[in-house]
Amino acid sequence: RSINHNKIHKSFSLQKTRNSSTMKTFATFNSSALLLLAVFTSIHRSLAVCPDTGIFDSSNYFCCPESCGSCGGTGCHLRPGGASSCCTSSITQTCDVANLPCIATDAPTQTPTSPPSNCPTGSIADATGLKCCASTCITCGGSGCNTRPGGQYACCTSSVTVSCSTGTLPCVAPAVTNAPTNAPTDAPTDAPTDAPGLCPTGSIIDPYNEKCCDEDCGVCGGYNCHARPGGAAACCTGSVTALCSTGAMPCLLDSVYKPTCPTASIADATGTKCCATSCGTCGGYGCHLRPGGAAACCTGSVTASCSSNVLPCTL
């Protein structure tokens, strides 16, 4: 019986083609799986954080003191602090139980609670609920506000004094007050009693326990404050900065006063240290790479007081 060699060859070629197609499909699937794993790992590591005075290595896995300049890699033993501080090969403990150097731990994911606010539609409130920015800023005020969409003039609030009633942003919102729904005779039961003794004698505290007005105002700050006895000068608190210890009225309680960085400087993420504005961001990862280098933009070893007129400094 004759053998049809052409038929056998075609059958073999078809089987080979099928096998090749199967291998390509498997390879594509395998590559996709590896890509997904890499993306997941990258997302997971992006949630990791170093301590305030630490910097990441190139993998965002290990943290070294920021005095090292960079963490791990070639020549790590030659940097300030030596191998014990700047090399990562022998690091085994996580930053939540060990000092630097250490393995970065995941950042907390709890959702912050926003304070009540009277910000206009299309805007967002800062951490106090008293000042408002455009919603495009994502976060209003605070550290790094100058780096958000719109820059410092849209997203920073430290020098904002204009009222939201003018229609401009950023702006100062009227304070949120819980107006009594009963007759005026019931008012004494709703009077501010949360912080007795904080305000000077003859004055009352605002709903945030931060500022004081003359007791003749009835309510300190908030909506329609200008219409109360004494007018805006006595009863409105939006632009009040004078400390109560100076005898001024209305006034800001000394206990809630927060010092601010000197002119032409910015605060770090903790709000306790200041760098030159040219740094862009004060302290943290990569501070040594910013304009001015580690001496101007890193805060790990800063002890000088800002009252000494040097930068970087400690508030």
Q: Please give the largest β-sheet.
A: 3 strands, antiparallel
Helix count, DSSP H or I runs of 4 or more residues: 5
Major beta sheet, strand line-up:
2-3-4
The helical percent reads: 10-25%
Classify the beta-strand content into a percent band.
Answer: 5-15%
Our measurement of the CA-to-CA distance between the termini, rounded to an integer number of angstroms, reads 101 Å
SSE topology string: HEEEHEEEEHEEEHEEEHE
Shape: elongated
Count all strands and give the number.
14
Mean pLDDT: 79
Estimated structural class:
alpha+beta
Radius of gyration: 30 Å
Taking pLDDT < 50 over at least 5 consecutive residues as the criterion, the unreliable ranges are 39-45, 107-111, 187-196
Give keywords.
single chain, 315 residues, alpha+beta, 3-stranded antiparallel beta sheet, 13% strand
Descriptive report:
The chain is α+β, with helices and mostly antiparallel strands and 315 residues long. Helices cover 19% and strands 13% of the residues. It has five helices and 14 strands. It has helices at 5-46, 83-86, 152-155, 231-235, 293-297; strands spanning 48-49, 54-56, 62-65, 102-103, 105-106, 123-125, 131-134, 171-172, 203-205, 211-214, 251-252, 265-267, 273-276, 313-314. It has a three-stranded antiparallel beta sheet with strand order 2-3-4, with no helix packed on it. It has a three-stranded antiparallel beta sheet with strand order 6-7-8, with no helix packed on it. Strand 2 and strand 3 (62-65) form a beta hairpin. The chain is elongated, with a radius of gyration of 30 Å. The protein starts with a helix and ends with a strand. 31% of the residues are buried.
